[in-house]
Amino acid sequence: MKLLRTLLVGLAMAGALFGAAVPASAGPDVNVSSGLTAKGPGLAVHGYDVVAYFTDGQPTVGRAKFSTVHNDATYRFASRANLEAFEDNPEAYLPQYGGFCAYGVAVGAKFDGDPQLWEIVDGKLYLNLNEEIQAIWEKDVPGYVEDANDHWKNIADKTPEELS
């Protein structure tokens, strides 16, 4: 099992090197990609509407005209109603582990979270790096959530590079 986990972490790290978000302005606890301007807040969840996962049950690309900055990251929404719902209660919609890959956090790493690979568990949004990692994560969601919660306490304030 340990060898399998080591191989999976290596695979995920390789994928992260080619598709990882580059932190831009937000703290290390939020996964952002280079965003609006070179000096502006980075774009969280690759510009996808975090409220739409809960209301529409699917990933939906947000629009720049419905944007807000939260925790030094820019969040976009598909509608004014979704923007207002987020502004009223951001904690209800924010992806767990700052939008980093849930499985990656479960093994003590930070990899990019793909907005197309998601699941809501107990009212919380989780993202994963790729389809292979998503399939592994789905085999023991409660166990991986527990592991990720334990690891997040120690890695939330570290950059992905510090964990490599």
Q: β content, as a range? A: 15-25%
Tell me the major beta sheet: 4 strands, mixed
Query: Given the helix and strand composition, which structural class is it?
Result: alpha+beta
Shape: globular
Low-confidence stretches: 1-25
Question: What integer is the average pLDDT?
Answer: 86
The largest sheet has its strands arranged as 1-2-4-3
How is the quaternary structure best described? single chain
Helix content: 25-40%
Distance between the termini: 21 Å
Output the number of helix runs.
7
The run of helices and strands is HEEHEEHHEEHHH
Number of extended strands: 6
Radius of gyration: 15 Å
Structure description:
By secondary structure, the chain is of the alpha+beta class. The chain has seven helices and six strands.
Salient structural properties:
disordered N terminus, four-stranded mixed sheet, single chain, alpha+beta, 164 residues
Quick structural gist:
Helices cover 40% and strands 19% of the residues.
How is this fold's topology laid out?
Layout: H1 2-19, E1 32-33, E2 42-44, H2 50-55, E3 63-70, E4 73-77, H3 80-88, H4 102-106, E5 114-121, E6 124-128, H5 131-138, H6 141-155, H7 160-163
Parallel strand pairs: 2-4
Antiparallel strand pairs: 1-2, 3-4, 5-6
